[in-house]
Amino acid sequence: MPKESAASEVMLRASICLVLFGLGIQISPGATVLLRNATIHTVSGPTLTNAELFVDGGVIKGIGTGLKEKAEQTIDLGGKHVFPGLIAAATSAGLVEIDMIRATRDLSEVGEYTPDVRSWMAVNPDSELLPVARANGITHIVPVPSGGVVAGQSGLVALTGWTVEEMTVKAPVALHVFWPSMSLDTTPKEQLRDKSKFKSLEDQAKERTEKIKALDDFFSEAEAYAKSRKEEEPVPAWEAMLPFVKGQIPLMIYADDYREIKAAVEWADQRKYKMILAGAKDAWMLADLLAKHQVPVLFERIYNVSGPLGATPARDVDAYDVYFRAPEVLHKAGVKVAIGMGLGGQVASELRSLPYYAAQAVAFGLPEEEGLKAITLYPAEMLGVSDRFGSLESGKEATFVIADGSILDNRTHVSEVWIRGEKTSMETRHTRLYEKYRNRPKKN
Asked: How much is the pTM?
């Protein structure tokens, strides 16, 4: 192509991008954009005021003040705040739509041990829940399979794209293990409606031991397969276990009770596995142990411990705010803490509230910068994608949120969400219904 034609095409593309952006349509992925006059929360470094962010080809190519780069589009943010995209490190969003309708739930497979399940492949790109979460700054999720002991693998999914293949950023990022319950039911037989369900403490303890042994045996078999593996005779379930037993990708182990957490940490340490503790209701009681073994925590129990009424303490000797303060207790001990909302259809429908869970921890002692890292940088580090996401730095993907205040403040309005250098739609089912009924015909 002649140079004159190439130059004309560049000018034409720049003009089209400018018009489309003004109409609220996504900018071309290859366009260069300069955001200026912004308060930029880098998360990994200081907060920059009256700063600039230069985006080229979906990547941050410059950040600071007085940037000299020339852009096809310059946007004055008028002092608005720019944050990294928020990451929901464990959720059922994308796998469930309406919790009470079975046909819209694809959360689990049959069987206790299904390591070859790949949950990201079941995400519904047309879910109405995902745009609602995205409109409040959630840019990435980790859809979690459930239902068994080893429930399957998950990948990191971006909340933009037409297909699951287009939305998937990295897979797998974790294998999900639900640690067998170690609690004992001490209810007397006389108080049970169904007397046939009564089990003695001895029987319960025996059953618990058998479940933990079955889990341990499963991983022993996986390790044995890895050592004697024959490429010409692959076994899908065991093949799926290879990166996890080799310590290349972490296990996300769900445990809440003190004894469960202690047993899980010691088990993972003994086997030299990478571990992320999720759920973690009693993690604050084992903060020193978690810090010693450098186990990061995805704390999901700020709310949703006892259902929709909130974080009711498990023990009557615990303070009312024990779970609100737990992230700060863990942080002081030197534990890396990410904050999640938990699993299930009800929580999935409320995913947009993720920043307010972090805000609750901040209100009860967690430093604000740690609260922000708990939903951006720390999840990215736990999932092995911090080289691309979690903070605003040159060389990282241009995925960020623009708002008129702190993302941790529920009064803040999110005005724009950018993923991979593209401005995404802020339309949701909520906005469509609002416009529909706002413009309803008036009766004479």
From this structure: 0.89
